[in-house]
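Reagents: none. Just compute today. Alpha/beta hydrolase.
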Amino acid sequence: MDVLELDGVELAVDRRGPDGAPALLLIAGGGQSMDWWTPEFCDQLGAGELQVIRYDHRDTGQSSTSAPGQPDYTGDDLATDPLRILDTLGIADAHLVGMSMGGGIAQSTAVRAPSRVRSLTLVETSPAGGDHGELPPPTPELAATWAEPEPEIDWSDEAAVIDYRVDVERPFAGPLGLDEARVRALATREVRRSRNMASTMANHFIAEPGNPVDPAEIRVPTLVLHSIDDPLFPFPHGEALARAIPGARLLRLEGVGHEIPPPAVWNVVIPALRKHLTA
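Predicted 3D structure written out:
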């Protein structure tokens, strides 16, 4: 893992696979470090034929952090970071896979810098702009959790922070519920590696939003992965994306929630992604 200094910002980057191979850049969701793209997933996806790159957003992992509640960047800054990374690594273009907020970033990159994008995969996300009719809101069960008072966290207490990180993921799980052991292991890795978890859990969601882009302007091969059980962006969000992007293909997932595809669906997701990336 390397920490790159880009325009005065530090971004932690991990590269796996052969140098010079086609590049695949994984873009995590809001409040997520690269840890949620596990090494096992990256290695199976790359299969020795791609260089798979994952990175920590600002305010996550080992990347630059700002004070909790005071992000010193905007959504447009987050959306430009993938290009900064590719430029610094000397990579002309890459396949992009974006989850949730990362899917919005990927859409923005594909519209604003189409020559830098080989293909696009959008996971559990929503159109980043344009008119797509009225799309359904989050499920009432998920929305109800946002009305609950925020717990007071002692951010110096590692065990308490890990518990909190796991609890945050719980309402986003699919119908089978949270894979407690797996998510706890990921949360533990993230908490122990991060500069400031208080900033991780807050700042992306209060930063000034980036300028919208219309996915109908995307002209690169696109695969949309969306669960019928996503509680944040219900399935019509994925359908709207697939309709809007010329030639896009929609893969319907079952049994998972609003999450980076877990091992239970790798037997479906990884072959579909490999086919898309090598087409």
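The CA atoms of residues 9 and 64 lie 6 Å apart.
Action item: order primers for follow-up constructs.
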